[in-house]
Write a structure and sequence with these properties.
Blueprint: H1 7-11, H2 14-25, E1 28-29, H3 30-35, H4 41-53, E2 57-62, E3 65-70, H5 76-103
Antiparallel strand pairs: 1-3, 2-3
Organism: Chitinophaga hostae
Pfam family, one: HTH_5
Domain HTH arsR-type: 1-90
């Protein structure tokens, strides 16, 4: 049984993050996405497959072209994970600020 890729695996790669950034601006065809990178079409297709497997990109076939759009709902898992650390560090920095203010 093949394990489903997760969002964290997908965003770990800088090329995939760049693809998501492109698609955040507008829906593009697969070829248009590929034109933005200095790599082969099969390499871009592999990145796109990973992004679609984890739900970050939705591809719709229209005629001979595949139109790609970003699905930011899939990033909610990342946002929730990061939030716990933001809260932790925010409280720690607040405590440090209070300590520094007391010493003045």
């Amino acid at each position: 049984m093949k394990a489903r890729r997760d969002v964290f695996q997908a965003i770990a790669d800088p090329t995939r993050r760049a693809i998501i950034g492109l698609l955040a601006k507008q829906t593009q065809t697969l070829n248009t996405v590929a034109d933005n990178f200095n790599m082969s079409q099969p390499a871009i297709s592999k990145h796109m497959r990973i992004l679609t497997e984890c739900g970050l990109v939705v591809m719709i076939k229209q005629g001979r072209e595949r139109h790609c759009s970003a699905n930011f709902k899939a990033l909610e898992e990342v946002a929730q994970w990061a939030e716990q650390y933001r809260s932790f560090w925010s409280s720690r920095l607040d405590a440090l600020e209070n300590l520094l203010n007391e010493s003045d």
